[in-house]
């Protein structure tokens, strides 16, 4: 079957399994070692789980909640659900019981598949008596077991034929937004949206020569980006997916697995930079000088002025003595380390690029597949989020909002026609992001709704100021406030033992008078546990402002 003949995601994956039955598809750490799932084994397991779901009464159009960490059972269950015409509702393992209850109510899911007994307990509390079918990948009281379902007799060839008949416009999944403000909404992603993303990225992947290499999957598979890219897009390009064991083991895994591609959020890049700089502080004077020179000259190569002949010769030496050692920490085979989920500060990406680590910034939204644009290694403009993918139309509205059109755009928000009508107008998705197009590349400057209007009428971008603050080593997290007030104030989470005031003084010297922070308050860290971070480490600005309303008022 030719690529342009795929109508559905299961059809695409089954076709890959036919062509590569013995090829490694997925890898996970279990029982003290790495275990591999081949394409053939994946397809057979999908067929068995699909047969079990169907026998238990799951019908086309039914929504099935899927709550699991990154593991092979996740894409197996995901594909099986879609193959019988049902709709996957992937959700985060870090969700609270209240979060699960909202998604269950809103989606109307009648079945749930979870990874562990702990998650089974959370879903039992959230669902009360509202679920007809429960399946746990491990063992949980009152839940069917994965081994039972995966032993169901199945006709894989018949299921493959059925998958080929799934129309591209059928709803594949409901992906709930991470809720940086307000309750999460269910984004209706049809098969065509994810297949359109696959077609756009495939052109880039082929030019990178990624076939047969591996991808280290770090973001949660329930996140829209990882769901599209880690579950469907990269595997269909012949790239083995290796599931990371978590942030604390990521550095060791990079060196051990030696991936070609890694995806991360800006917060991880901040952590990695701090770790590298911390190690350099302990190094000898010559090592520090070489590192500083490699960093400075790497930035010069990108931003100018050009290196002179002697500096170019030194740069070759720095490649061998500094940059290769840094690259070795990332495995030595890295083709692309893609940042997404939030704005990546150009100074932060410049740090890694200057040291030879191929950091690429992309941009996307759950409502658009989710990949909209990405930089390319051979055309990497770090102050932009790259050109739109092939098949994606983009334009800037009169008020500066980015609009996107194409087959990657969602069908709308589940059970919310009013929000759908507001988001999609004349086929154009209103992203809510403010930006510009420069030489065909997108530059995102802020969220439209997040602009602060001060008492004096000045419109200020909090994202810009927050990004500057968090680029300072003394500050881990920051949120700016000032709507309807005479000036800006800040909520700051400082690094341990650091002088946040010194960092604020430096920033105030660099920005315009109306952007200066007049006062600040030190606050506890924004975390998943206190509900102030999304599962992909984005700060929930609205929630932070509400949680610290009294403290903000005291600053004026």
TrEMBL record:
> Where does the AMP-dependent synthetase/ligase domain lie?
15-414
Phylogenetic classification of the source organism: Bacteria, Pseudomonadati, Pseudomonadota, Alphaproteobacteria, Acetobacterales
Alphabetical GO CC annotations of the entry are: membrane
Tell me what organism the protein belongs to: Humitalea rosea
Mind listing the UniProt keywords for this protein, alphabetically?
A: ATP-binding, Nucleotide-binding
Q: Can you name one GO molecular function term for this protein?
A: long-chain fatty acid-CoA ligase activity
Catalytic activity annotation: a long-chain fatty acid + ATP + CoA = a long-chain fatty acyl-CoA + AMP + diphosphate
What is the name attached to this protein's record? Long-chain acyl-CoA synthetase
């Amino acid at each position: 079957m030719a690529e342009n003949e795929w109508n559905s995601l299961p059809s695409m994956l089954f076709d890959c399994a036919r062509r590569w039955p013995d090829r490694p598809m997925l890898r996970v750490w279990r029982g003290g070692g790495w275990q591999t799932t081949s394409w053939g084994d994946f397809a057979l397991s999908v067929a068995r789980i699909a047969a079990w779901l169907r026998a238990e009464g799951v019908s086309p159009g039914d929504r099935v909640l899927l709550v699991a960490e990154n593991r092979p059972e996740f894409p197996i269950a995901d594909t099986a659900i879609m193959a019988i015409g049902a709709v996957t509702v992937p959700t985060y393992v870090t969700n609270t019981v209240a979060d699960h209850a909202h998604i269950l109510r809103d989606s109307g899911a009648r079945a749930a598949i979870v990874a562990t007994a702990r998650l089974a307990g959370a879903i039992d509390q959230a669902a009360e008596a509202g679920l007809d079918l429960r399946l746990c990948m491990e063992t949980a009281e009152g839940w069917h077991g994965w081994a039972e379902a995966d032993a169901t007799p199945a006709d894989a060839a018949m299921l493959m034929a059925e998958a080929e008949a799934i129309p591209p416009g059928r709803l594949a999944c409901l992906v709930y937004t991470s809720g940086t403000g307000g309750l999460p909404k269910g984004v209706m992603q049809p098969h065509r949206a994810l297949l359109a993303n696959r077609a756009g990225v495939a052109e880039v992947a082929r030019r990178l020569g990624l076939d047969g290499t591996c991808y280290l999957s770090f973001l949660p598979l329930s996140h829209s980006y990882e769901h599209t890219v880690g579950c469907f897009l990269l595997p269909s390009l012949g790239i083995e997916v290796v599931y990371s064991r978590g942030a604390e083991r990521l550095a060791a895994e990079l060196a051990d697995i030696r991936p070609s591609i890694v995806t991360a959020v800006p917060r991880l890049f901040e952590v990695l930079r701090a770790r590298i700089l911390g190690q350099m502080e302990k190094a000898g004077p010559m090592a520090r000088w070489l590192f500083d020179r490699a960093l400075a000259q790497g930035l010069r190569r990108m931003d100018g002025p050009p290196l002179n002949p002697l500096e170019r010769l030194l740069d070759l030496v720095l490649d061998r003595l500094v940059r290769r050692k840094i690259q070795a920490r990332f495995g030595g085979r890295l083709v692309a380390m893609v940042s997404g989920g939030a704005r990546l500060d150009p100074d932060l990406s410049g740090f890694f690029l200057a040291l030879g680590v191929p950091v690429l910034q992309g941009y996307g939204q759950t409502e658009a597949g989710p990949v909209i644009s990405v930089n390319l290694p051979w055309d990497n403009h770090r102050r932009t989020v790259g050109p739109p993918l092939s098949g994606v139309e983009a334009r800037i509205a009169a008020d500066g909002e980015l609009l996107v059109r194409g087959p990657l755009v969602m069908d709308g928000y589940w059970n919310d026609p009013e929000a759908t009508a507001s988001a999609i107008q004349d086929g154009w998705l209103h992203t809510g992001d403010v930006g510009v197009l420069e030489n065909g590349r997108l530059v995102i400057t802020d969220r439209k709704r997040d602009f602060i209007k001060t008492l004096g009428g000045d419109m200020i971008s909090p994202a810009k100021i927050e990004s500057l603050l968090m680029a300072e080593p003394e500050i881990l997290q920051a949120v700016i406030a000032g709507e309807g007030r005479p000036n800006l104030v800040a909520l700051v989470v400082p690094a341990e033992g650091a002088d946040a005031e010194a960092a604020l003084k430096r920033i105030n010297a660099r920005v315009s008078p109306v952007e200066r922070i007049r006062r600040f308050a030190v606050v506890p860290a924004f975390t998943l546990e206190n509900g102030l971070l999304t599962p992909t480490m984005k700060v929930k600005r609205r929630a932070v402002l509400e949680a610290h309303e009294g403290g903000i008022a005291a600053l004026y």
